[in-house]
Specification:
The chain contains 26 helices and 5 strands. It is mostly helical.
Length: 730
């Protein structure tokens, strides 16, 4: 029985239940920070998608590269991925977390100041990516291209986010943490671990660094990071938001509490092991590849557990799906999550991976997740959230429905042509004709077959982007018709110490839910096990990376040429990993060995073949072929979709940092002779003059200090260090 206290303070209601005092406290949710992240989500989403459309058409028509070094596919493709992942989805995460966390914990965010620092710090990080990536400042590591000063800024702002989140959890008024909060905690902890481990790099200059790992180890760490960036940035925070916003939009409770427990713990434990499935048939040790496959196949169970929990939450509410655009977006988002998480384990099977890897099939797979799961859930949350914080109704359901259908058609027009292109590539690459000869020995034949698919993909992107612009208009008109409820009043009882007479839920998991730091520790243990088991043996047991005596460090000119290759983003279209398939060894040469990459910082194995593999390109063609190919690709490969690189012939190679680069490599154990750094540029010019003289014999006059000379030196070195059967163990 509730007994009122005489003359309570304004906004406070007290009472006694058994031995516990109940006091309702008035507090205010911060909607201003939610509004800010919402606008940032929309702005960066449109920007990232627009760049994506440009990138799509660049592959269909090289003229769309605009003949400018700052707008080539190699430089802006990572800008597109960073803008979509960290700007659009990142701001979407923070929008959803800042809105739901306050309400789930019955508390305002821990610090308004930290919220503002987080918001503006994150926008500045994105802006720095917009500036640096087109300028060619890149580590070349997928989803982690930003250079070391920006990596430090990301770390600091991520700590601010965690500080604010855990501070809010500590001062919560709700004893039990809801499942969405579990996913937010796991997201913060795992992304922190992933970023710090993968970003271990040695600075050379202000915007240049070398990876702290080399070759096989670098590849393992990168795809442990890359796969789990998808897991813990594109998936777990969105699952947390699904568990909050989908029940709210449907006005139904989550289908199963027990299923959510199984979903959470099994997902975060299993996901972390799956990274090596990106490296099947490569030089990674077989045992690590097999671990990646096993855990990837297991991953379908928790992933589909989450999808089922989401869809069954709508039981009894499917009539609303027909009427409410918010629920339409959310249903398709959860379905796309289910499709992508079925396809992921399937692609990790070796026999499927042998066909799909390096093809556009992978591009289709990624975009079903990004456009469907992340994009549509973000749109659904925006349509649900904006009217509430602006105290009004959605401006137009008709426009929201138009956005839904345009977006859905956009996904179909994007994904289906890319699947078709991927199947075409995979099968043509492996096709043998009569007499056991490769039927399509010229790689360009496979490229020309899929150009129409690239145009269709671009059309799909335009449809999806058009829907997003409709959303911008709809959300803007909605906000304009209302007024922001910056500080939303709420009431809740304070979190009191548990007493003997207090009712306890008998479920064992409640013990963990009541203790946020206990949950954080167990979640950290769960995500560390897989990474440690895969990485520690690869680093400490020499037999995992057999060395090859003939493999030597790059010369100073080759090292500078390699850095130009990285700067221009060549790894976005060309792999340097010949797998042990007959179709690949006949097309490219001897398959790649682990010991060949011991001085590669970063590794450049690539993840997509828009052009042929280059690992054995060295000495295959004369210098003049590479010279003409970079000046006008169609002169050497008629019909090529590769852009020209005229600036490499005009710009002088910057050699001021050569000694610093050599010293950085020496600090990581690369065996350059003592004192080589001081005479590195002398050695560089000697080799450059040799290449210039060779080109002169072929009627091509080029000064030795031009960038093209260094790039030719690097390309001519690739894959020339070994002869068949020359491999030996330490």
């Amino acid at each position: 029985m509730l007994t009122e206290v005489s003359n309570p303070k304004p906004g406070v209601l007290s009472g006694k239940i058994g031995d516990r005092i109940n006091t309702l406290e008035t507090f205010y949710y911060d909607n201003k920070i939610v509004r800010n992240f919402a606008w940032a989500t929309i702005f960066w989403g449109l920007a990232g998608m627009l760049i994506g459309v440009i990138v799509a058409f660049q592959l269909a028509n090289p003229d769309v590269n605009m003949g400018n070094q700052y707008t080539t596919f190699g430089r802006i493709r990572p800008l597109h991925t960073n803008a979509v992942i960290f700007a659009f989805v990142g701001n979407g995460i923070f929008m959803g977390v800042y809105y739901s966390l306050q309400r789930l914990l019955k508390a305002r965010m821990f610090s308004d100041v930290l919220s503002k620092i987080h918001f503006w710090g994150w926008q500045l990080i994105i802006l720095s990516a917009v500036i640096t990536l087109p300028l060619g400042y890149t580590t070349s590591k997928e989803y982690a291209e930003l250079e070391w000063p920006i990596d430090i800024a990301i770390t600091l702002i991520w700590v601010v986010f965690g500080w604010n989140m855990f501070g809010t959890i500590v001062k919560r008024r709700e004893r039990h943490m809801y499942v969405g909060v579990w996913f937010y905690i796991a997201t913060f902890l795992t992304v922190a671990v992933l970023h710090i481990v993968n970003s271990y790099e040695i600075p050379v200059t202000f915007m240049k660094s070398y990876s702290g790992y080399a070759g096989v180890q670098d590849a393992l760490v990168q795809w442990w990071y890359g796969h789990n960036a998808v897991a813990f940035f594109l998936t777990t925070p969105y699952l947390g938001m699904m568990y909050y916003f989908l029940p709210k939009a449907a006005n139904r409770p989550v289908y199963s509490y027990r299923l959510s427990i199984i979903h959470f713990w099994s997902l975060i434990f299993i996901y972390i092991w799956a990274g090596p499935h990106h490296l099947l048939y490569t030089s990674l040790p077989d045992w690590a590849q097999s671990l990646g496959v096993v855990f990837s196949v297991m991953l379908i169970a928790p992933s589909w557990g989450g999808m089922i929990n989401g869809l069954l939450t709508l039981r009894g509410a499917w009539d609303k799906v027909r009427e409410e655009p918010v629920l339409k977006f959310m249903v398709v988002a959860v379905t796309a999550y289910g499709m992508a998480t079925f396809e992921g384990p399937m692609l990790s099977l070796k026999n499927v991976n042998a066909i799909a890897h390096f093809t556009d099939w992978i591009v289709a797979h990624v975009h079903v997740g990004a456009l469907g799961w992340n994009g549509f859930l973000t749109f659904g949350i925006l349509y649900w959230l904006v009217p509430r914080i602006f105290q009004t109704n959605l401006y137009s359901k008709k426009l929201a429905n138009a956005h839904f259908w345009l977006g859905t058609l956009g996904i179909i027009f994007y994904a289906v042509p890319m699947y078709w292109a991927g199947f075409t590539q995979g099968l043509m690459w492996k096709q043998f004709g009569e007499g056991g000869v490769l039927q399509y020995a010229n790689f360009l034949e496979t490229v020309l077959q899929i150009v129409p698919m690239y145009y269709l993909r671009g059309i799909g992107g335009i449809l999806y982007l058009s829907g997003a612009f409709i959303m911008l208009y709809n959300v803007y008109k909605t906000a304009k018709s209302g007024s922001l409820l910056a500080n939303e009043e709420a009431e809740a009882a304070p979190l009191m110490p548990a007493t003997v007479g207090q009712h306890h839920d008998s479920h064992w998991h409640r013990i963990i839910e009541r203790k946020p730091f206990r949950m954080a520790i167990w979640a950290t243990v769960a995500i560390l096990i897989g990474g440690l088991v895969e990485m520690v043996p690869t680093f400490l047991i020499d037999s995992n990376v057999p060395t090859i005596a003939s493999v030597k460090p790059y010369t100073s000119l080759e090292l500078q040429g390699r850095d130009l290759y990285i700067k221009e983003g060549c790894v976005n279209c060309h792999t340097q990993m010949i797998r042990p398939f007959r179709s690949e060894t006949e097309r490219y040469g001897e398959y790649s060995k682990a010991g060949e990459f011991v001085y590669d910082r970063p590794f450049l194995w690539g993840s997509k073949r828009t052009g042929p593999d280059l690992h054995r390109i060295g000495q295959k063609y004369p210098h003049s072929w590479h010279y003409n190919h970079m000046l006008d690709p169609t002169s050497m490969s008629p019909g090529s979709i590769m852009p020209a690189y005229p600036w490499l012939f005009e710009q002088d190679l910057d050699i001021e940092d050569t000694p610093a680069k050599i010293r950085a490599m020496q600090s990581m154990g690369v065996p350059y002779p003592e004192g080589y750094a001081e005479k590195a540029n002398e050695d560089l010019m000697k080799q450059a003059k040799g290449i210039s003289a060779d080109l002169a014999k072929e009627g091509i006059e080029v000064k030795p200090e031009k960038e093209i000379v260094a790039l030719i030196a690097y390309l001519q070195r690739l894959g020339t260090d070994i002869k068949v059967k020359e491999e030996q163990k330490r």
